[in-house]
Structures are given as C-alpha cells and as structure tokens.
Amino acid sequence: MEIPVTEVKLYCRIDGEAEDDLLQTLIEAAKSYLAGAGIADPAADDQRYALAVKALVLHYYDYRGLTESPAPSAIPGIRNLIIQLKLDAETARVMAEEAASCGS
C-alpha cells in the first residue's frame, strides 16, 4: 500500500520538503516493523494500516537520535491496532487454506 510522504507530513505536522528523504526512510522502516509483527502490506487501501504506519513514523521521527525511547508498542492505541491487523491477516490465511483444501 502506497503511503505518500505528503500524508505522513500532514499527520506529523511537518512543513517543507527538507525532511522528505528521512520521512520516506521512516515509512519503509514502519512497514518493515509491521511486516516483522506478521502484518503484510495490504494490497488494497486499509486505513488502519496507514494509521499504524503514520503513528510509527511520528514515533521514529520524534525519538530519532535518542539512545532510549519507548517501544513502538507503547504508543497509545498502536498495540490494539497491530493486534487487529494481525488477526485480519490470520483470518485471511486460514480462509485461504480452507478454500485450497476444499478445492483439492
């Protein structure tokens, strides 16, 4: 799912273009974090996924350069959002397996 830097800048309240490269890197890092948590990049628009990426980018942006920062799961609401996305992914996987076994 494409998450434009312009949308992330609105969410993070960042003006100008000086931080665009950094924000793009943080977007990719957030997507990698979610993939590591078992949440694949959705093929279709999923506003919950976009919100999770934006929240993670803001967290990474705010705490860049610090040696200690709260874990991303400590971001208010992000844990529940990640759990929902993981449950959706697991449901889709189980349904795909069931459909494949019925077709055999």
What layout of secondary structure does this protein have?
Elements: H1 5-12, H2 20-36, H3 47-62, H4 78-103
Helix pairs in contact: 1-3, 2-3, 3-4
Notes on the structure:
The chain is mostly helical. It has one domain. It has helices spanning 5-12, 20-36, 47-62, 78-103. Helix 1 (5-12) crosses helix 3 (47-62), helix 2 packs across helix 3 (47-62) and helix 3 packs across helix 4 (78-103). The N and C termini lie far apart (32 Å). The model has no long low-confidence stretch (mean pLDDT 88).
What is the helical fraction, as a range of percent?
55-70%
Overall pLDDT metric = 88
Structural class: mainly alpha
The total of beta strands comes to: 0
User: What is the C-alpha radius of gyration, as a whole number of Å?
Assistant: 16 Å
> What's the shape?
elongated
Separation of termini?
A: 32 Å
- Give me the strand/helix succession: HHHH
Low confidence ranges? none
Sheet having the most strands: none
What percentage of the residues does DSSP assign to strands (E)? Answer: under 5%
Q: How many separate structural domains?
A: 1
Count of DSSP-assigned helices: 4
